[in-house]
Structure formats: structure tokens, C-alpha cells
Design goal:
The complex is a heterodimer of chains A (about 475) and B (about 400). By secondary structure, chain A is α+β, with helices and mostly antiparallel strands. Chain A is built from 17 helices and 19 strands. Helix content of chain A is about 35%, strand content about 20%. With about 400 residues, chain B is an alpha+beta fold. Chain B has a 5-stranded antiparallel beta sheet with strand order 4-5-9-7-8. Chain B is globular, with a radius of gyration of 21 Å. Classes of the chains: A alpha+beta (about 475), B alpha+beta (about 400).
Amino acid sequence: MIALPKPRPEVLARRDEIVAALRTIVPGEGTISEALRLKPYETDGLTAYRMPPLAVVLPGTTEQVAAVMRYCHANGIRVVPRGAGTSLSGGALPLEDAVVIGLMRMNRILEIDFDDRLAVVEAGVTNLGITKAVEQDGFFYAPDPSSQLACMIGGNVNMNSGGAHCLKYGVTANNLLGLKLVTPEGEIVEIGGAHLDAAGYDWLGLLTGSEGMLGIVTEVTVRILRGPEGARAMLAAFKGTEIAGAAVDAIIGSGIIPVALEFMDKPCIHACEAFAHAGYPLDAEAMLIIEVEGSEQEQDELLTKIKEICSRFDPISLKVATSAEESAAIWKGRKGAFGAVGRISPDYLCMDGTIPTGELPRVLKRIGEMSAQYGLQVANVFHAGDGNLHPLIMFDANDPESFRKAEQFGADILTLCVEVGGCLTGEHGVGVEKRDLMGVQFLPHELDQQRRIKTAFDPGWLLNPHKVFPLQTEAA
Amino acid sequence: MTDRLAPATEQDLAAAVAAAAAAKEPLAVEGNGSKRAMLRPVQAARTLSTRNLTGITLYRPTELVLSARAGTTLPEIEAALAEKGQMLAPEPPDTRTLFDSTEPATIGGVVAANLSGPRRITAGAIRDHVLGLRFVNGAGEVVRSGGRVLKNVTGLDLCKLLTGSHGTLGVITEVTLKVLPAGETSASIGIRVPDIATGVQALSAGLGSPFGVTGAALIPAFAGPDGPANHVAFLRLEDFAASVAYRSGRLAADLARFGDLRVLDAAESTSLWAAIRDAQPLGAAPEEAVWRVSVRPSAGARVAAAAASAGGRALLDWGGGLVWIAGPATEAMHLAVVAAAEGGRGSFTLFRAPEPLRAAVAVLPDEPPALAAIAARVKAALDPAGVFNPGRMRPGI
């Protein structure tokens, strides 16, 4: 279980006064203090952890955010920022003595410019909402985390969110131009703008993925891209994970960067097939979904090349979609993977390590051994091009021992990811979930260096102080 | 000649930094010193160079990753990649001509300057391709950030902070980069346009097409390969041969409305973009200063016009968003460039100038006070004794 910093009794004692002060800044429904109405804010996508906050404010403007921050800074009150609350790592988990600043009311699209290929949006606009606003002109916003219907761009910036298509289009950090930021002291600053590579320190890069520890993002300028003429998928199934891994190497080695390259292991294939009836081969040990983009003719050429490469690896089946409908059928199982696993097991933990792609067979073998050892089933989906592995560990949340074992199993997998040259998290963030594993990846003086950067932004450690870094030396 | 330290190991380099920090003796940090004349002059009696930390330490083409010690030269890395049909997608400029340097840039220097070429507009900057760094902080500690995998959000991204910090926050000792397959072939379309604004519109139309443009630049009339009367907008395609043939046909049909148009083959295209990458069409004379201004693309034409009316010449890349300017190395010219950048709500860098000008003016935009205060604390968090490149970017930093 995760420890949280001790609440400050002097802050808890002043609760009514604090709520009244917040109400003068964000009046009416925008300040929440009733226990029942605080309930939705006590957890996020990592539902195993809950903590009702002191109060929630839902500002409508950057100026209100700044005023709340100035008040909290002046009064030594901790602050936890929150977007849609979809974090899988507990990134939005509150503290008992903290004010949650929810950005969901700041949901306006401020500017769309197709000539300069950018959109300026408030932090509470959903990821998919940006694409919806520009798609009628053939444009899209590239990073596509699987929570994209709900998750908000402010949260995407703070977690540096990825998605299934980042092999070609990059992650959030690669698709940003500027931010409006409220500092922990309550100052409003503009970072970057509508232009590329602002001279000076790369604040934009440092803030992206900083998990709400350095400031509150209220506005974001994103790059929007023109979509391709079309896209099509194929499926390739193999007799072994090593063989499928070798096929991935051969595709990339041929100079083709597919827009998506997804890998599923046997338990995942079975779970997805039972759920979605997508026609996946049940005798395969591993399966790839490969998607390419371009005109019909370009798609044909690329898929023919990829099919030829895969055929060198003794495939069980190769199925090239000939239409958008057939592509959708191939994707149907993969897109339903989490739901499919949820059907087999009442609860699962979705892990998120990254490994060098060449280490995949070794890592899957070890995960299989650990699964037997812990007596917990696991299914693996893997963004094969970029090495991002999502093992889904199945457990029973009604059994505390089962949950404890699942957490330990997850920690062992992430430790293994680091051992083979990878990292603890590819796209979900550290949050509270992986905080205590940071020592596996970083040496103490390296964590201290990162903490000193946090201190440079937030000398009082008031902003999300319980995330990312192991707790005991938090105020270093 | 200043006293030069050039340790052969990371350990020795860390020890040298620790000693300098203890003695509070500032160090000018460099690789081969090829960009020594960039930004503000550094006041330091001693130079610390990474030139002897050399060699590619890891290259896995199928994992799209390459690691090299900081002193490895850019040509060596590019040659190793070319052997496997791969590339550094941001195509960093070869700055030897601009800085009148005989030595090639080191990869550490390229990362420290975050210097990216034409492909930046669609493929990302150097900072987007740095997966991991090892660096020595101002306390003489070796610190790692990032790693060797393509997707990594573990902890604060110090790679981004160090990239482009011009050696003021730490000495980069090893870099790990994302590398990508190079296109099988390339072609370009050149469009004669009546004025720069029309040219930028043509570039925007190309970049807003579904055809995967990888370069979008405008060479104004003074340097025009089609004679002094024409501005020419260029768009590049790079991919498998069949795709390049198909897309250049489609793109040419779409863009014909902007002006007379011709298609450049792979050989012409390659030499054209190497020249644009290195800002050669500017033809900057040795006594002239050179600026890089970054604005939203639609503001590029106005910046170019402002530069021209102040007595300078402009070359536009990144779809109009990067304006290279050459002109008289005077404060008046500098102020005109700064005003043009600020008018376009963009950013500027005095890229190259004789030392008196570099020492006298702000070579980068000032930061708002709240951010400047954070910057000073971040600098102290990494370099508490203030030994790295004092004054390189701004007075004190």
C-alpha cells in the first residue's frame, strides 16, 4: 500500500475559513466542500487508492486558477491539479489537506489555424475534442491515448501521454508548441507560443510529463496534422514470441515505419477473440497488427512488402485487409483488449513498462514464469515498434491477498523492464503507483537532482507533493 | 589561448568539474568548439572540452536507437547511420561554413545547441530525438536522464532541459538518440512565386496536404537559383520511390495555382536541401551577423520584409516559421530583427556575430520575471557554483 504525507493539522483545522476564501475566488458551484460532492474527486483511474480532499475548486479562467494558487501559496496549503481523472497511475489522487484544482470547466477551443497548423485550447478540452474540432478539414491531433474520449489535454501534457500511433507521430511532447502556466506562486507565464523551438531553456519540454508538480497548465497550443489519404491494417500470426519479435525487427530493418505495430500474446489473443469474435487465430503464440497509411496504391505496396517479410517467418496466418471494414475487424479485438480481460477477471492491473524491443522474448518468458509463481494470470499487449509493454495482471479485488500479490507481480515486471535496459513507465506516468520503484531506475543522487528541479519551481513542495518521488526524502 | 582540459573519460571529466566547482573557477564548456562564436562570449580562463570522449557505444538499427559519447563527431555518426540506411531525422546543420570552423561539430554540441535543420518542421527537433543523456552536473556528479527506449515518461525529463541549454546546466558526456530509416529516394517541387507571402501560402498548402512533406523552404529572389527575379518555394518528399513519384505528381497538381512549377530529381533535391540546411543561400559575408528567428509560419513574410528594410537578407525554412537573416553586425540591425521577432510573437537567436555585438546585446529574448526567477533557481539546482559557461545565454546564465 502507498503511504501519503501526513496532513497538516493546522490546515485541516482551518477548513471552513479556507473554503470561504476559495468561494470568494471561485463562487457558487465552482467551490465544492460537501462530503457527498467531494466523492467523485477522491480517486482517479487507479481506483485502488482513495482520499477525499479538503475542497475542490473548478475555476473557469486562468486568472481564477492564479488567484487560487496565490491564496494557497500564501497560506501554505497543498494543491492537487486534476483534469478528467483518468490517470492510471494515481496522478490525480488527492490529499486530505489539499485543495483539488479541477480544470474541466476550462473547456473552450480558443483558436484553430489550418495555415499554421495549430490549435489553442483550454486545459479541459478532451483529447478527442481537439480532433473533432478539426477533422472536417482533414486534420487531427496525433497523440491518441486509449482514454482519448474522456482525458483532457492538460492531463495529457502533464503525463506526456502516448497512444497506439506514436511510433510514427510521437507522443504529446512532440506535438506541442506552447502553454499557459500558473506557477506555484500564482504567476501566469506563457511558455513557447505558436512557433517552434523558442530560444532559451526548454521549459515546454521540462513541463511536459512533469505530472502536475511544477505548475498548473491552463492553456495549450498543439500542432494539428493533416491526416493521410487512408490507412489499412493487416494481421500476422506466428508460432512463437521470438519469431514474431524477429518479424518486427525485419519490418523496421527494411526501412518501413508502420503507423501502428501492435503485438498480442496468446492469453491476450484468446481473451480478445472470446470477447470480440474478430477471427484471431487461436493456435498462435503471438500476433501482430500492422497498420500503414497512404493512398490505396501506397497501402497495397507497403502491405505487400510487409506480407513478404512476414512470410519469411513461417507464419500461421497472414490476413491483409482489403477495405476499411476489414481493417476495423482486425482492430476490433485489440481495441477491446482491456474489456476482454475484464470479462475473464473481475479486476486487473494495467502495467506500463518499456523495454528494448529485442528483449521482448526474454521478458515475456520471465513474465510467464512469474505468472505461474504468483498464481495470477497475465495477458500482454505491446506497442511493438516502440517497446511499450502493457501486461494486464488479473486478480480479485475482494481478496486483499490477491491484490497484494498483483501489486508485487507488477513491481517485479517493472523491475525486470529496467534490468533489461528499459524503464518503469512508457506513457502512464509514475504518479503514486510507481513512486516507490523510482530507486530501481535512478540512483539516489539522480533522484535528488530531479527533486532540486522540483524545488526550484515549488520551494514549499505544495503542488502534488506526494507524486513521482519516494516519500521519505521528499523535501530534500 | 586559454587553458584547455580535455579529459579522456567521463570520470576524469567529473573530477575536473568537481575541482573547478570547489575552486569556483568558471569553465567554458565545449566539444570541438565549432560553435564557440555562437551566443554571448563566455568569461572563463579555462575550457573544458568533451572532444576526447569519443565513440559510438550502442547502435541497434531495428530498435531505432544509437548512443555515442559526446565528443563523437556528427559526420562519424551520420556515416554509421547511412551504412544501415538510417538518419538523424532533424538533419542538424553543418555549421562549419557559417562559423568558419575547420572542425566538425560533436554530437554533444549539436544536442547542447538543439540545432535542427529543414526536416524539423515535420520530423521534430533534436530535442524530440534525444532519448537519454548522461551529464556531469555542477557538483561533479554523473547524472542519467531518460534511457535507451523510445517511450519513457519516468521522472522529470532532464533530457529536454539539458538539450538546448548550451552547456550552462551540465556537461553532456553521452547521448542516446532515436534514429529513423532514411527515405529510399527524394524529390522536390520548386514553385516560382511573385512574393514571399504567396510562397509561404504555397508552403502551408503543401504542409497541409496528406502527402508527407519533409521540407518546406523559400529562397528569396536575391539568392534564387532561377535568377534574381524570382522567389522560389521548395517542398520536399522523401519515401519509397513509388510513393515519391506518386506524391510529387499529386502535390504538383495541387500547388500549380501558386506559380510556375518544376520537379527536382533526387540528386538536385539532396544538394538543394543540404544548402538550405546550412543557410548557404543567405551568402552571409564574414563581417555580417546571422540571426535565426522562429515565428508562426504566417508571420514569416513580415519578418523577412522587416529584415530587408533594415538592410538584411532573409531565407525562410520550416514552412516560413524559421527566418534566417544575414545583415550588418550593428545594434540597429539587431534591434530591427528583435522588433520583427517580437512583432510576430516569436523568438530570436543572434546566431553569429563579431564579439563586440554579441557582448553588447541580448542574444536571446528576455524571459518574464516569474520565469527568470525560476530559471535562476534551476541553474543553481544544477550548477550551484555557477561554473558552467557563465554568461553564455544571458548575463549570469
